[in-house]
Amino acid sequence: MSTLRFHAIKESLANKPVLVEEKERRSDLFGKNVFDENTMRQYLTKDAFVGVMNAIQFGKKIDRNIADQVSSSMKDWALSKGVTHYTHWFQPLTGTTAEKHDAFFETVGNGMAIEKFGGSQLVQQEPDASSFPNGGIRNTFEARGYTAWDPTSPAFIYGTTLCIPTIFVAYTGEALDYKTPLLRALNAVDNAATDVCKYFDKNVKKVTSSLGWEQEYFLIDKMLAASRPDILLTGRTLLGHSSAKGQQLDDHYFGSIPNRALNFMRELETECMLLGIPVKTRHNEVAPNQFELAPIFEEANLAVDHNSLLMDIMGRIASKHNFKVLFHEKPFAGINGSGKHNNWSLSTDTGVNLLSPGKTPMSNLQFLTFFINTIKAVHENEELLRACIASASNDHRLGANEAPPAIISVFIGQQLTKVLEELEGVTKGKLSPEEKTELKLNVVGKIPDVLLDNTDRNRTSPFAFTGNKFEFRAVGSLANCGNPMTVLNTIVAKQLIDFKKEVDLLIDKKGLKKDEAVFNVLREYIKATKAILFEGNGYGKAWEEEAKKRGLSNNKSTPEALKAKISKKTIALFEDMNVMSKIESHSRYEIEMEAYIMHIQIEGRVLGDIARNHIVPTAVKYQNMLIENVKGLKEIFGEKFKNVSKEQISLIEEISGHIEGINANVTKMTDARRKANTIENIEEKALAYCNEVKPLFDDIRKHCDKLELLVDDEIWPLTKYRELLFTR
Ligand code: ADP
Ligand code: MG
């Protein structure tokens, strides 16, 4: 083993952790560092409290006077907890979080200073926005954008900073972040769903979209990770032969969590408790050193913020425990990658989960309405759903041989499939009283019993119904959930509006009763959406062929997939729903295409460097050792040396072949990159990176990985898979 690798592993193993005790009950810690409803009750005047609650619940504007009161109380609360700075906390289109800290401290003349935090500072801030991606909305010389307080996500303290969740918009009004369109989408789905709920319950005033994400990740020893330039710069390994033992034995999944990882998790979870992130579940995942963390679901905007915050603090806490967290969707070839299931549902302010069957036929009809409308929304917009989870890193899962496929389909399970079949047979138009009774008692009424034994679990489906929620499983582990949540809620909002129009028409024009009209429209939807329902194996070749016949899209790469973001249909959808303007849709498309190009470009550079400057010199060195050896054998054995050194000579040849292979392909890749860089059109450029540059990665890697098996372990420069994955 090389000295570098040896010392890295030695260091890592020297770290012999004992389990850290948890002194406080978690429920006692929960939300302690959050300016939440309880804290607001303590700190705010009644007027201010009511003002903020109205903003949270009904989107009412907060006036200046109230903002002053809130900021002053927030400051008092923060100072009481040792806070010195505040920041607007936002999520620019880089996908990560951004912050710029300002001290409360201010001078007031005469050498005096005070701690100040006014309403205007709470409500608005102006970071220099020129270096954030904006997709051509602004030129740098007019780089003015501002952040504005989002009262629906509570302020929190991290370290000694008060963080205020904000949206980030250009002065011309366009969104420059993930949160702004999400809030607009949540508003759209609230309005549309509330209107539909009124068919079933007049008391419903608000519908909330919920999200429960499940974050998968790898934990790798920090020293070992730092020894790999590819992990350091791209978040994944670009080469490395698979370890003799990987995940074949299934001995990691749900296994006991190693102490060192557990200590990290405990500290992380404690921090999550303080920040009000309701983390609940943790377990080992399928691949070695892979884990999952899941909270209790929350209102979607808050859940998205919490996921972004979590990813940020995970990195920091991991570092304290000498770990590096890998969020990349495919950090290692040959073993499972990571995803982030987005569990989604809608619920009313009367406490009803609209995707959960109820106790009465009427509430079940309501369930069916939302259930079938969601299926219809996915059916109409499958290509857009695929687009909203597209990224260079997620391409390694979707469309590669891993869960789930790039084809979007919906899994609903046997029992609900049967219910839909029965509903499809319902008479068109008016129903006889007998038919109605039969329908209500024996079809709709039976759903809860039917679902009780809904044990179907299809792990290969990208969008599955799991009893009381839909699970969007194709979201990448590295993704900001804001993007998929914006799309999902927007398409459902649009669908519910269309549905209501159709039902109202049947009631007004055809004189149907409300439930008859609902049945009629749902029946047509069931007929129209069959192509999107799929219960079989999503990974198989057979499904690809079948999906093609059904007319479903199968966009395997990001450049292909992203096109759906700027189709006429998508632009009209986002405009109609007031979620994004045409300019915003286009700018996002450009930013994401640009990001794709940059990622592949960086990976290409790193791979070229490692292959040429680390692997080839090592291979040459080893080959020279072999050559020396053969020369020596010749000296001793004379002409007979050929008999004793046959293998060595062929090894020398084999190594030459791989060195040739690497050099030739790196040259080819560099040329392909150069050529791609001259392309002006962003779509063509991205496609060139995808189809001309990226495939060469595999060719280069193949030779490097073969050499790893041939070359002396003592001089191999890169930390190996077995060391990265099994050092604990
Ligand atoms: P799995 O079996 O897929 O691991 P779980 O049943 O443990 O899933 O739930 C995973 C996530 O789904 C959790 O974050 C949980 O809070 C969330 N979840 C449960 N019910 C709902 C719901 N009605 N809406 C949204 N998310 C939900
Ligand atoms: Mg799940």
Give structural notes.
The chain has 728 residues and is α+β, with helices and mostly antiparallel strands. It has four domains: 1-17 and 216-238 and 248-339, 2-Layer Sandwich (Creatine Kinase, Chain A, domain 2); 31-175, Glutamine synthetase, N-terminal domain (Ubiquitin-like (UB roll)), CATH 3.10.20; 178-198 and 346-409 and 459-579, no CATH class; 595-726, Four Helix Bundle (Hemerythrin (Met), subunit A) (Up-down Bundle), CATH 1.20.120.1560. It has 26 helices and 18 strands. Strands 10, 11, 12, 13, 14, 15, 16, 17 and 18 form a nine-stranded mixed beta sheet that branches. Strands 1, 2, 3, 6, 7, 8 and 9 form a seven-stranded mixed beta sheet that branches. A hairpin with a 2-residue loop joins strand 4 (105-109) and strand 5. Helix 12 (361-380) runs parallel beside helix 18 (514-528) and helix 24 packs antiparallel against helix 25 (682-710). The two termini are 18 Å apart. The site of magnesium ion has 3 residues, from loops. This is Glutamine synthetase. Belongs to the glutamine synthetase family. Pfam families: Gln-synt_C, Gln-synt_C-ter, GSIII_N.
